[in-house]
């Protein structure tokens, strides 16, 4: 580019920085990146802190670690919304853990931080050192202490997600107290739910649910089921609640909730969605209908993930109790090759209506059904398609799970064609190559690869 235009005035690459910043402020992030390629001066403008208020620090490989380090040096003291995301293999765990501590330490000096979202892809916090070189790494403070320091420094923290970290959620009471002291009037989003490393054996910690009375603007809360009680529902009476997410793991002597408490909660928070996630809850799924679900729950999303069974009575509850609220149903298990009969067929009453068909008929807001790992009649799929049509945005089943009452090949092809005609791109019969390995074989895959992305979507 020429240094001067024909009038002798300044050239584009010598525009004052304040003018360049004004120009860049009208551009999208992608357009700023393209504009930054014009010259060095424009590239410097790209990295003005005002354009990096929201940053995702992603740990994936060696290059991403270098980029995180650079971005942290530039913007850790000025960023307003920070997401720290892990997408790493266990062999890179130590390097990324070290960089994560460095990043959190820098963020702990940022008084302008408004939102912090942690998104861990694994729960391997009790990392066992495989060789002597690993043991040279020493972290002087814990993750919990890092988070508490950030809470105490920030002037106006609005959102905090612990990323389903079992270490952090075990210390929820330690984290909640400084949140109450410093951000009771600001906090709108708090994610405390976890993914248990061992869903059958884990420690229970005391949590004073009355502390939630202090957060007068709280609108999104995620929590493990052991902390959910009538006392909690009563504490969430601010009228601002938009989403309550509950994770159910092992099944122990939990306080649970009453239908009356849910009725009062809904009266206080009429706009609130309840999202219920059962994660490796082998016993929880068996009592889902009797001990967990209540008729007054504002249930909008139900995920049952790798619980090794289908509770037909619970599925029937969906159409009976949540016909005006339920929006999505996700039920995923590893495929049982020995299963021949559909999982939704009641052996005690084989002529009873299929619960998924009933849900499709009765639940007027239902837009998503994902049902993987269990046999299902093709004829019932057709019934669902006819009932919901284009209002059902996702209908996902595994091809190998779809069976038929009719042995006629032509009849089967006719049904397949009609479902495709009705659903179009919303119909998703998944081949084995489309499925995660853990669904095909529980011994050859990691269920966390499926669970973590699904539940982290509820955190934001």
UniProtKB/TrEMBL annotation:
It comes from the Eukaryota. SMART domains: FBOX. GO terms for biological process: positive regulation of protein ubiquitination. This is F-box only protein 33. Residues 9-55 form the F-box domain. Pfam families: F-box-like (PF12937).
